[in-house]
Amino acid sequence: MKLTVLGATGGVGSEVVKQALAAGHHVTAVVRDPSRLDVEGDLLEVVVAQLSEHGALTEAVSGRDVVISALGARDRNPTTIVTDGARAAVAALGSAGVRRLLLVSASGPFVDGDTFFTRNVVKPILGRILRHAFTDMIGAERIVRGSDLDWTIVRPPRLLNGPHTGEIAARTDGNVRGSYSINRADVADYLLRAAADDSLVRQTVSIAHG
């Protein structure tokens, strides 16, 4: 598989790059600062580009089987990084004639499937603390859903830096109940498997540790 990763130096993005290379995939990592990419490999191509550089992004996704947007905010300040990435990715894929797009969002802004306590107590508090990031992700999801691409939106809960476990629960009809975190390595594992799963085209999937 040939894939392009946006946000390749982030926690999830770097795991996607590492696992994809280990599995023998050809990976194009789109980064703003190549010094922050601590991965090497014969199957790795590094493209230095801003999200505003449509031509460079179109070239980076051209001929690829899938594009994974793993962009995310690094703090709690106002941000549009995920929305900007979604908009740029949709435009670049359209120009390049590439169909498959995976977007990393989050389960936090959404309550479908949650327990009464989580929906009415935990999520309102979380929504105030992370309101800027959540607004950004909601906007990104809206852009991706409005496209005619073969998209999949993946919503993990709280992200941890633990090892790859392979213990992943997934739901397409709401958030995973009773599990409120997942290791970034497991998110990457799920993304790579989902990329080749046609049953997940135009689906939103919530994942968590199983």
UniProtKB/TrEMBL annotation:
InterPro entries given for it?
A: NAD(P)-bd_dom (IPR016040), NAD(P)-bd_dom_sf (IPR036291), Polyketide_Oxido-like (IPR051606)
What the entry lists under Pfam families is as follows: NAD_binding_10 (PF13460)
**What region holds the NAD(P)-binding domain?**
7-197
Cite the GO molecular-function annotations of the record.
Answer: biliverdin reductase [NAD(P)H] activity; riboflavin reductase (NADPH) activity
Query: Can you say what this protein is called?
Result: NAD(P)-binding domain-containing protein
